[in-house]
Amino acid sequence: MAEKDWISRYFAPLATAPGAAGLRDDVAELTGHAGRSVITVDSLVEGVHFLPTDPIDSVARKLVRVNVSDIYSAGALPGDALLALGWPANRPERDLAKFSETLREELKRHEMHLIGGDTVEHGGALFLSLTVTGRCLSGAPVRRSGAQSGQELWVTGQIGAACLGFEALQAGDAASPHVDAYRNPPIPNAHAARLVAEHAAAAMDISDGLLGDLSTLAGASGLGAHIALDRVPFAGEPASVTDMLRLATWGDDYQLLFAAAPDRRDAIRAFADRAGLPVANIGELTFQAGLVATYGDAPVNLPETLGFEHG
Q1: What is the pLDDT of residue 177?
Q2: 3-state SS class at 15
Q3: Per-residue DSSP letters for 184-217?
Q4: CB-CB contact of 259 with 196 (8 Å)
């Protein structure tokens, strides 16, 4: 059973608080803090979300950034953090010291504060989980739902760099310039939160592949979507549609995907230019359910699996 099915079958029925939104988002609104605060949690498991050979400092950076991108996608800025750490007994203490040092630097970079958590030493693989709160910039979180047909679809940054980095490592090319994007995700700057808060009708971060997450975003509002692959800012200048589809389904980008009304287009571009935030308009939402892709004016056959599926 896939992770999404676990959630909908076993845990969504338990999430009765209004701020939980039926567990359809990666962030929840804190009960008693309506319109002000959100909270999210992401976990990393050795061998699943990072390689056993990845440097421990890159694991610390990734742990923080995958959570911060969720907070930004809600139109919020990160605040406090809780750390849960399952540390392998056979890992040396110098790794723990390096992890702690890098975690401190990364939290400071995003103006966050560690306020608690839990640690345990065990005989398994390294396990890490970070829970992060956020302060909404527009009085309420921006959800995945709330979009309307005809609204335009935007992404920040580049898509597919992590995929290229992982493939380079698998091929023994540790010197590839994309390896750093896999190990240390280059999430958008903090201005992205303000951009979402002021202009987006719906938003999420891109963690499980652009096509899969786009399908999720559209589906949350009962809509379909059209994506123009030739307008997507892919990393590495892919030479074919096949290469584009591979990059668009791999995941680990942690950029933002958002929907906005067409009359916001100029304002979005002006804001992004001032903020040093790369953005691209890649398509639009449609009444007709499902995902349609084109390259130029030609339709593109989509793969059966649109993104990474847990489980």
Answers
A1: 92
A2: coil
A3: S--PPPTHHHHHHHHH-SEEEE--S-HHHHHHHH
A4: no
Angstrom distance (rounded) from CA 201 to CA 212: 19
What are the extents of the domains in the chain?
A: 3-136, 152-300
Q: H-helix or E-strand containing 282?
A: strand 279-286
What pLDDT digit, counting tens, does each position of 40-55 carry? 999 999 998 999 999 9
**Location of structure tokens 């760099």:** 161
Q: In CATH, what class is 152-300?
A: alpha beta
Tell me the C-alpha distance between 17 and 138, whole Å. 21
Cβ-based neighbours of 195, under 8 Å, separated by 6 or more: 258, 268, 271, 272, 275, 277, 279
- List 291's β-bridge partners, or say none: 225
> Tell me, what's the pLDDT at 46?
96
Q: What is the pTM of this model?
A: 0.90
| Residue 115 C-beta-side C-alpha neighbours within 13 Å | 10
- What span, in angstroms and rounded, lies between the C-alpha atoms of 212 and 207? 9
CB atoms within 10 A of CB 159: 27
Fold of 3-136: 60s Ribosomal Protein L30; Chain: A; (3.30.1330)
Residue with tokens 């709330």: 146
